[in-house]
Write a structure and sequence with these properties.
Length: 546
Amino acid sequence: MAEIRPEAFGGQLWRLVVLLVAAVLLGAVLPVGATAAGDPTGALTGGAVDIGAAQPGQPTLAEVAAQVGKNKVAINLTWVLLTGFLVFFMQAGFALVETGFTRAKNAAHTMTMNLMVFLVGALGFWLVGFPLMFGNFGAIGTLGGQSILSKGLSVGGWNLLGNSGWFLSGMAYDVTVVALFLFQMVFMDTAATIPTGGMAERVKFSGVVASTFFISMFLYPVFGNWVWGGGWLAQLGAKLGLGHGAVDFAGSSVVHMIGGAAALAGAAVLGPRLGKYKPDGTPNALPGHDLPMAVLGTIILFFGWFGFNPGSTLAATDLRMAVVAVNTMLAGAAGGFASMVYHWLRYGKPDPSMVCNGTLAGLVAITAPSAFVNPTASVIIGLIAGVLVVESVFFIDRRLRIDDPVGAVSVHFVNGAWGIIAVGLFADGTYGEGLNGVKGAVTGLLYGGGFGQLYAQLIDVGVAALWGLGMAYAFYKAYHAAFGLRSKAENELAGLDLPEMGVFGYPEFPLTTDGHIAAARRRALNPEYHSGLRPASAPSGQHVET
């Protein structure tokens, strides 16, 4: 057999590569026959033959019109689904923000709460929440649906609850209804997630499971029906002449005030974290363990808000979505900028946590008015939100002495209320024709609309506060009395990861009183650590964070 020299093989391989490259280049530049041509611009793709017709390729005018209608609904339905997916991704943002703002010894507990809320909330909303909230919604106009969701409870013509769409079965087994369910379910999930931040670092995991069922099946959908499901707050305009009734485009009250109210009630029932307040009531700072994680979560939430607000048009064919998107962007930017500058001037440093919360506050505040105001007004709304969140955080922490580890109450409850009020002030009369059965567009006080719309918005804020705080406080109080809502003191000191979840969030980096280097040496020498157990010989402060 002839010997193959390496250098000869290398030369042959080089020639082969050159030939292949030449062939590719020739194939790219040489013309081909017309019969083999594709459609690289798409100009020839699609035509009369693609329209469903009794005679293929020769559709009648009625068949063309039917196809146009189907295409419009398909575009809108795709928009609803895609923006719903964006809102779902906000769950990752919440998980990162809350975990970053809290201490490392609770990382697994905090992260898992954020995942669990979605899992439990989806089932609760499917079982009970959705039919209560949207059972008397009527036809979903932008999706071309029939009046499938058309049953509810009313008293004297005032709608109180829905009563159709149970289990998405029967008539509700319909593409338009299930699309609405997906979109609204991820909104509910946002509301149910907010309390986990306010109760973080001392709440039992089982208590959050129970409260998520309560929020998804009762607290959120009942109020949501009153505003979004054709309920009595939405009827304030048609029945009492108060503007267009309560107007909340994407959920400043329905989502954020209700979620924030639950956070406030839960934090009040639980009490502050151990070590949060000195004997004289002065608050101690308990800083989070990973600010970069929180900043990343804020960016993810900002991105998801482009599904939250523009998606609430429920129609890609509603071109107002461009205004909604820009208003969302500007208000979020203004909120973050205002909180940064305000904190910088007042306290000497541009605290990153306040920049994050200011950004989120601006986004929460613009959620209700995003479709009804102009870009200049959105900047004003965001600037006010950015200052409001800073003052609110310190007021709740220092004056009310309610321990809110992530600022959830200030971001969502306080600025949710501001966003609702902003509709009654800044709505410019260019959008919302016929909303809630009232002629004309939504117009606020500053644009000649009078006080009617502002009164409706103030009623919305008051009802959201009373309903959210009252019902959530009653639930948490009752649950705490029956089962215990707060973790044991020794578990809270050690961190909730192992006592509540059975694992450490950071198993290779135990939190100690004598430094991470010594701890790492002990772990390397004692394999019992790797099972998640603390050896009996370990120092008593092994898992106590200082």
